[in-house]
Amino acid sequence: MATIIKKKKGIKVRKGAILVVGLPGLGFIGRIAGKYLVDKLGGKKIAHLVSSQFPPQALITKKGRIRALQHVFYHVKLKKRDVLVLLGDVQPLTPEGQFELSLEIVDFVMKLGVNEIITIGGYATNRLEGNIHVLGASNSKKHKELMMKAGVLYGEAKGSIVGMAGMIPALARFSRIPSTCIMAETHGAIVDASGAKRVLEVLSKHLSFTIDYSDLDKAKEETEKLINKIEEELEKQQEALKEKNKAPPSYIR
Amino acid sequence: MATIIKKKKGIKVRKGAILVVGLPGLGFIGRIAGKYLVDKLGGKKIAHLVSSQFPPQALITKKGRIRALQHVFYHVKLKKRDVLVLLGDVQPLTPEGQFELSLEIVDFVMKLGVNEIITIGGYATNRLEGNIHVLGASNSKKHKELMMKAGVLYGEAKGSIVGMAGMIPALARFSRIPSTCIMAETHGAIVDASGAKRVLEVLSKHLSFTIDYSDLDKAKEETEKLINKIEEELEKQQEALKEKNKAPPSYIR
Amino acid sequence: MATIIKKKKGIKVRKGAILVVGLPGLGFIGRIAGKYLVDKLGGKKIAHLVSSQFPPQALITKKGRIRALQHVFYHVKLKKRDVLVLLGDVQPLTPEGQFELSLEIVDFVMKLGVNEIITIGGYATNRLEGNIHVLGASNSKKHKELMMKAGVLYGEAKGSIVGMAGMIPALARFSRIPSTCIMAETHGAIVDASGAKRVLEVLSKHLSFTIDYSDLDKAKEETEKLINKIEEELEKQQEALKEKNKAPPSYIR
Amino acid sequence: MATIIKKKKGIKVRKGAILVVGLPGLGFIGRIAGKYLVDKLGGKKIAHLVSSQFPPQALITKKGRIRALQHVFYHVKLKKRDVLVLLGDVQPLTPEGQFELSLEIVDFVMKLGVNEIITIGGYATNRLEGNIHVLGASNSKKHKELMMKAGVLYGEAKGSIVGMAGMIPALARFSRIPSTCIMAETHGAIVDASGAKRVLEVLSKHLSFTIDYSDLDKAKEETEKLINKIEEELEKQQEALKEKNKAPPSYIR
Hints:
4 copies of one chain form a homotetramer. Chain A is of the alpha/beta class and 253 residues long. The first copy, chain A, has helices spanning 29-41, 95-112, 141-149, 164-172, 193-207, 216-244; strands spanning 3-7, 17-22, 44-51, 57-60, 66-68, 71-77, 82-88, 114-124, 134-138, 160-162, 179-186. Helix content of chain A is 37%, strand content 26%. In chain A, the strands form 2 sheets. Chain A has an 8-stranded mixed β-sheet, sandwiched between helices. Chain A is globular, with a radius of gyration of 18 Å. Chains in contact: A-B, A-C, B-D, C-D.
């Protein structure tokens, strides 16, 4: 696997920073919450990441620019602490890619001074009448206790977590970085701004910041637009491939 | 392929140790027998192994903790000799992964001082009225003779062995480590505690230890529970993937 | 991934050279235009590239020679500037291969002194009555402006570009090499010499050379012949594989 | 990809040796001819090769031994020249594996002093009434001329060669080792001793040795037995996998 991480020059992150990971996943809760965090707290791009494990699409922007599908690291300076936010267009194509990229991200942020990681996900559930809970799964007892203080509920999430939201905390344990995956309960099939809000409330308590939530719906729409564009492109291309090249020539062009 | 093996500090294994490998396989005989050995002989965890070739699931435990699918090395100190036991949740996803992980395990235990390896498997057969035999396939004539003394039957197992229980002895030959795959006859479709018992009898004779077998059924149940949980999660996720993402977006989330 | 690039000895490329990439793609426009450039401007082979990511076919030539599917770098010396042209039989089999090969190509030509890259593609469209436009997507604002002067239209191409024609400019950004993918509008299903001509006009303006276009149809036919041969071989073999080996033995022979 | 080549100690190969490659392929001509060469000229095993790209089967022998699917290098000392013969159980599972293993083999034998490589294959044809021709495809003009003197026919073989019999000569060109793939005409569907004989005649002329062909049918039968065993095992296991594990658990055991 080939991964390129290009960091801007002269970036200084205070030691003891926290990484918040917002990748596409159930309900796109992580993506929305991460994006909102960056927008509201004034995050600045500090690094781009591209990987051979992402779909080989180069997106054309409105302005006629071209860019690969990517992950971007943002830098937010809170009073007490620096926060890195990782936003991604996609997750790697293969299990192996998800594992290796998780490792590389943990390694990269450790070197930048990060000593805590929170990943954001959604947790599919059918009972969603009352309160939306934020469920947690932690890679250490100590971090679990910290997250409980921020309102995360334990013991409710069952089963397993697929993708990098689960893999990053699981692998961070091997580098002794306390880490939790926080998951808002969600229906699963929709892009879910309410779940994102609940996750942001947990983060605001844990990191002692305040933001207003009035633009969340706009953030949701923007996320939907980006995701739809990417999905559409992937679909279009796959169909084109299927149609034109039924047989081996698929790998000629 | 990326593999991480995290060894606890200060571990001392006496030279001339033996590795016993208990991975999921036919009848889960290796997994049950390995687990029982660790429990009854007081094995201690000395190393964790995770691999990009395992399914990218992070299991949520009852206590709200998160962990990757993994292999664990245990350390058992018998009077005369140290025994390492390798227990695993899964085998790698691909042939390539099984080969490479087998190599890495042989390499890792060699450095720890291991000079003999026994892997445990099941051998599918229909005639199971009378005695359950333990069949063998060895990577050296000398080791075959040793295992015959411990009650292993040769010449009956035919064909080939898939997965790491066969690959480890085959590759250990390239490092000149004598190694045998011992296989209890089994029906194949069930989780088989009787087969595990027969394998344990061979090991107890070969390694000169005694254990009682009264808790084997409990060990079987625990193994079943773990395996069921893992299988269930893998199934659930695959179905979810299929349903939600029929087309390329499968790799978006 | 294994890639071999074999460069002829004693090649000297002037600094500030440009790479033009003509790989198989929509309408085979890049392949035709690149080939024509090489023929008309007197390009000389300076390097061969083979990759484990190409289909494992060894082509038999009419003279009884054998060669792997390959990419070839040609060297054209214009008065003011050196031009490298990359022509390829195929694109890599996998997304991962396309990404990694794009990286390796950018790296290779950088070392040769290249500081600008133009990749050629086709853009599928239904309205093709009037003028055929050459659309662009650039990895920098500055390069976009340069290409506009050469007649490239921006803002019309939408969506995304699959394969190396898009991936090379996207990754070249990480090495700060200005790069654009220029795409002639085309039907998509045919081998398109008209599109190739339009692209060549853009290149001739950008690089200040003049060529006559009278042999373009011959170039088209040659391209068609080569492509047909490769596609035919790939198809034949895949069918043979399917027929003869329905089950696992497929990987015996 | 992981490949292990274990060479016996103290092997001395005279410079200017030739490698003859007999891998499973069309009509198993290469495998039979290579084996017969080793048997009749008294070849000695000098190296074993195993690869993560071979199917992960460990074969159980009649004597209760276990071995991975492998390639074996034999050493034949003719008066004038040393001959290495490579015999293999299988070819790698993937295109990428075939490419990389071909590279590694070329590299390995170069270091041993080899400066010429002949690979053996079959060429499927329907007209087989009269003489069986041996067709050739060479990676250099000079080697083609040499092989013509030994009775190889050029200009008849068309299309392409799949697998390592074609890939090795194609890649040997990058190391400037003259190499030809010689192919006996064959029906394709049968294990073909007549084709093997024709290829051996070419080799005996090219390398100036004489052998009798009276045991060729026995060699054919042995090859058939081995191949059948391997195919059978691969099939059995794949069916077992399909039946037992319909869903994801396929990678649990």
